[in-house]
Amino acid sequence: MSIYQIKKPSFRSAIVLMCLGGFTLSMFSSVNAADPKNWLGFRGDGTSASPSAPAEIKVGDDGNVAWKVAMPGKSVAGPIVVGDRVISTSSGGQEGEKLFVTAVSLKTGEKLWEQSFRATGRPFCHPTSANAAPSPVSDGERIFAFYSSNDLVCLSLEGDLLWYRGLGFDYPKAGNDIGMASSPVISEGTLIAQVEAQGDSFAIGIDAATGVNLWRMARPRQSNWSSPVEISRPDESTEVVMQSGTNIIAVDPRRGNIKWIIEEGADKIASGTPAGDYLLLPGSEMMALNIGESATTPEIMWRNSRLSPRNASAVLNDDRFYSLKGSVLVAATVEEGEQVWQKRLSGLGGTWATPVAAGGRIYIFDQSGVGLVVEDQGDSAETIMEVDLEEPVLASPAIADGKLIVRTNQSLFCFE
What contacts 24, CB < 8 A, 6 or more positions away? Predict the structure, then answer.
């Protein structure tokens, strides 16, 4: 085994690839990326919805905690599920410079493997956040772990290092002291990340197989924590939409050329949510774009200032969506943007984690560890269960195989 540089070596070069002779990607054990039992990135497929999840979330002797596992460091990154593996990232050390990727068994919680690295970029962040802030993502064959320090790790499903990018070496002015938290997305064999700050601000497309840049574009020089989202168009093409406080653009994931642009700012924390023929984009107003029509630039179908979330992204549930505005949950229709009901959630504190939904139930966690199960009853809603994990939750949960996986600052919980 040897490590070699993919590009011409330099003191800044931070691309390395593990070379295993005749080793090829076809030798990986892989999973079907379209399988609803998987949860392959931030908010799963971007909607935060799944067919089924536990009806209850209870701890204690009469609870339904299948397992709880201590993690090696702090995290506000959502877990992902790839086949029978739950993948979670963590950061530790005095400044969060120690990076971890941990895989545990979805069925038992047994630790399958763990890799650790040292940050090459700036690990600094707000005390409530962590270097492990962006959620990892998988294409079903590989795992990509991204960190606030702009370190990007590509691993096999068995935990072998395939390549490593230290974007902080290549672009040392990218980053801010509050921390970076935009989660990458995989589209057309390309890992796309928004690395946007007041310094060197850009979006980048990296070949998933090799770790080499396919494209890079300058972005507005302002902090932005929203994440890119993949959408499908009527001609069966795929686009990746990126929002900022300045504009909304869609790019070809493989080439990086701009397909369309809307010169209007959107939210810099909450991300867009694909909803069939629509794309819901939060901002000062919630905006619905009609991506199901053949027009190059999608038409804006409706706007509603009452439906924009505060920090969390909107959650899809068939023909309606949910928007969390602090301790108030709002349900609205996708096509018309009309509010159906509004529910004030008693006992809920500050919220950052995007909720998830399954079977007409919405699972919401606050930054103290309190979790609520809210049932959509058509014209109204009821809180049917409350739990206290007693550990902060700032990461969006995952749902897979009917199980709910919650990452707290220091632990992984699995409810079944």
Answer: none
In which element (H, E) is residue 170 found? helix 167-170
Contact 400, 411 (CB under 8 A): no
Give exposure, 157-173, as e/b (b: 16+ Cβ within 10 Å): bebbbbbbbbbbbbbee
pLDDT score for 130 = 94
Low-confidence ranges of the chain (pLDDT < 70): 1-34, 177
Residue-wise DSSP of 326-392: TTEEEEEETTT--EEEEEE-TT-----SPPEEETTEEEEE-TTSEEEEEEE-SSSEEEEEEEE-SS-
Considering only CA atoms, give the Rg of the chain: 20
φ, ψ at 306 (rounded to 5°): -80, -10
C-alpha–C-alpha distance, residues 308 and 383, integer Å:
21
Nearest CA to 225 out of 42, 88, 59, 366 is that of 42
* Alpha carbon distance 301, 34 (integer Å): 29
| Calpha distance 67→88 (Å, rounded) | 15
Report pLDDT for 311. 93
Q: How far is CA 113 from the centre of its chain?
A: 22
Tokens of 19: 């070379």
Instruction: Give me 106's structure tokens.
Output: 């979805």
Residue with tokens 């990607």: 25
CA distance 15 to 27: 22
Domains and CATH numbers, the chain: 2-415 (2.140.10.10)
Interstrand relation of 49-50 and 356-358 (parallel, antiparallel or unpaired): parallel
Helix (H) or strand (E) run with residue 253 in it: none
Both structure tokens of 236: 């069966």
Element (H, E) at 162: strand 161-166
Quick one: residue 352, left, alpha or beta (phi over 0 = left, psi -120 to 50 = alpha)?
Answer: alpha
pLDDT of res. 16: 59
What tokens appear for 58 in the block?
């209870």
CB 113 within 8 Å of CB 158: yes
